[in-house]
């Protein structure tokens, strides 16, 4: 965890991004139509979350996640500013003309030194997230209000920066920075807040109208340190296997309740969550498609301040679409 924290701090020192978080803090019983927006740099990276849509944009690439009133999700990968794509294509055509004059001995030397190594981190990730209590997905009966609708509890990640340290052309260390958006859909018609004893406790929303859905959302800035090996498969594709540690810095957390009459209620706070977290992650993929899994080992909540004093252990599993090439 110390290593991950150091890399996290180093990543901020190198990138020096300006991070702006925009949102409205509302009590759970008040209506809120606001969105949550995170901007890094001069609009280099942008995250927008509202009641039915999430947009994650970096440069000329973007992921748009739309949720229908029935709870179905639609994913669209967008490209912005097509002129940049045309410039890139012109550059590729120019380099193709000079291909026959390429110095193969110099390329072979660079391959041996690992300068051509490219890991699989930067890209979009979509998956499911959940949490356990003492290594079990069955929660104690006194915190049953934390039970999740697992099929609708999702993670949406955008890894927008990557650093490669190659040992050879097919092995090396991978790090970078990414945004990790976790949404936990509660199984029952309840929300959560801070109780009178200072622990996370159940909150019963106003039942003037039936509750359509209730969620707990957390946004993290992630930094991994991965050891990756690649196995050539075919002419240009590779099988990649990676494992390592991952650290997260909490940027924002909030609950949201949506009623059947489409009224929306949002409440923001830290919910006794620790500012930093760390875990282990594993990834296996072919070409630019990767299956990943992450399990967070450090306490999610502050000591004895979780749901009725219990701690929970988050994990996520999903599919990543990388654009390292």
Description of the structure:
- With 325 residues, this protein is mainly beta.
- The chain has one domain.
- The chain is built from 3 helices and 17 strands.
- An 8-stranded antiparallel barrel has the order 7-8-9-12-13-15-16-17.
- The chain is globular, with a radius of gyration of 22 Å.
Write the layout of secondary structure elements.
Elements: H1 2-15, E1 19-22, E2 36-40, E3 45-49, E4 53-58, E5 61-67, E6 73-79, H2 82-97, H3 104-113, E7 123-132, E8 154-168, E9 171-185, E10 191-194, E11 200-203, E12 211-233, E13 237-259, E14 264-268, E15 276-286, E16 289-296, E17 313-322
Antiparallel strand pairs: 1-2, 2-3, 3-4, 4-5, 5-6, 7-8, 7-17, 8-9, 9-12, 10-11, 12-13, 13-14, 13-15, 15-16, 16-17
What is the CA-CA span between the terminal residues?
Answer: 30 Å
Discrete helix count: 3
**Strand runs, count:** 17
Reported for the largest beta sheet, the result is: 8 strands, antiparallel, barrel
SS content category: mainly beta
The strand line-up of the biggest sheet is: 7-8-9-12-13-15-16-17
Low-confidence segments, given as residue ranges, are 2-18, 23-32, 84-89, 91-102
What is the overall silhouette?
globular
Roughly how much helix do the residues carry, as a percent range?
10-25%
User: What Rg do the Cα atoms give?
Assistant: 22 Å
Number of domains: 1
Q: Could you give the order of the helices and strands?
A: HEEEEEEHHEEEEEEEEEEE
Strand content: over 45%
Kindly state the mean pLDDT as a whole number? 80
């Amino acid at each position: 965890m110390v290593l991950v924290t150091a890399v996290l701090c180093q990543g901020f020192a190198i990138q020096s991004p300006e991070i702006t978080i925009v949102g409205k803090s509302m009590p759970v019983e008040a209506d809120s139509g606001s969105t949550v927006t995170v901007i890094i740099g001069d609009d280099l990276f942008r995250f927008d979350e509202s009641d039915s849509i999430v947009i994650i944009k970096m440069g000329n690439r973007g992921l748009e996640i739309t949720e229908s009133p029935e709870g179905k999700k639609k994913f669209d990968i967008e490209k912005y500013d097509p002129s940049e794509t045309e410039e890139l294509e012109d550059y590729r055509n120019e380099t193709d003309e000079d291909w026959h004059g390429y110095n193969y001995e110099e390329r072979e030397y660079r391959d041996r030194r690992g300068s051509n190594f490219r890991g699989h981190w930067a890209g979009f990730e979509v998956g499911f997230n959940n949490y356990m209590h003492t290594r079990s997905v069955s929660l104690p009966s006194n915190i049953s209000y934390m039970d999740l609708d697992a099929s609708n509890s999702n993670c949406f990640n955008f890894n927008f920066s990557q650093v490669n340290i190659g040992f050879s052309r097919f092995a090396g260390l991978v790090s970078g920075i990414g945004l990790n958006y976790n949404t936990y859909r509660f199984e029952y018609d309840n929300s959560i807040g801070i109780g009178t004893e200072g622990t996370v406790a159940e909150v019963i929303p106003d039942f003037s109208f039936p509750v359509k859905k209730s969620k707990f959302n957390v946004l993290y800035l992630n930094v991994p340190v991965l050891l990756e090996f690649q196995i050539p498969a075919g002419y240009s594709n590779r099988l990649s296997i990676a494992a390592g540690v991952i650290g997260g810095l909490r940027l924002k957390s909030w609950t949201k309740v949506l009623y059947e009459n489409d009224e929306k209620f949002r409440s923001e706070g830290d919910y006794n969550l620790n500012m930093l977290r760390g875990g282990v992650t594993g990834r296996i993929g072919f070409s630019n498609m990767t299956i990943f899994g992450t399990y967070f080992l450090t306490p999610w909540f502050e000591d004895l301040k979780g749901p009725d004093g219990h701690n929970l252990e988050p994990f996520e599993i999903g599919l990543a679409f990388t654009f390292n090439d």
